Amino acid sequence: MNINKIFALFFAVCILVFFYSCKSESNSDKLLAKVGKKELHLSDIYFPENMDYNDSLIFLKNKVESWVMEQLVYSEALENLSKEKKAEIEKQVEKVHCNMLVSAQEEKIIADSLKINISAEELNEYYNANSNDFKLTENIVKMMYVKLDKKNSDLDGFRELLKNNTNENKAELLKKAQNESLNFFLEDNVWLYFNDILKEIPIKTENQEAFLKENKYFEVSTDSIVYLLVFKDYMLSNSPAPLVMVKDRIESIIFAMKKNNFLSVYRNKLYQEASKNKEIKIYIDL
What we know:
Elements: H1 3-23, E1 31-35, E2 38-41, H2 53-80, H3 83-113, H4 120-130, E3 140-149, H5 155-163, H6 167-180, E4 183-185, E5 192-193, H7 194-200, H8 208-214, E6 217-221, E7 225-235, H9 243-276
Antiparallel strand pairs: 1-2, 3-4, 3-5, 3-7, 6-7
């Protein structure tokens, strides 16, 4: 019987098993396939969520076929590979197994024992000492803008409120923008990438640095729309990025440093205790 017929037979069995397993919980560990002494049970297969009946059958068929082929090749490997090659693979498997257990143990120790809190003082201290490691790759701005229909009857009112940005004016501007604008952004304490602004607003400039230096207030229009902009601040590419933009990265760095320090202390303590209990024997000079 060729392999395709074998798989077809397995698929037929799989359909029956899967159908009845859906009917009865006691069938959830039905035997699906067997190669030599190796067995594949329904409980060995994880089905993705939200899969309909037909897709589940196809998924099951593919899993069984894949498992059968894997076992056939595995059996061939056991017979054909040299003892040296199998020993080499066993060492690699043991090393991977060891690394996984060590990693799991250290993660458990960290989860059980380490509560890492990063203060604002630590963030500022690290940033001030390493700000040149966080250079901007493009220009950023703090700005406000309002997108209006050219037919709006109070364009001058919007211009005046944008140019004279007191707290009182800002509240009035927000109210007017919500009622009359096509779009707006008034959070002038937020850093934005200037290239993202250019995607939204049709500003034509070949020299961003010169444009930002020369324009505090700017207007640009199309046939039917006018954009009113006020730039509150800017920083140029290759300058140190402001702390607020790299805060998450710095927190990750500090967390990793504290984690590594904690693990170093843990490993050293473990080593010292094992040495004290004479559990370690080293036969070379270190």
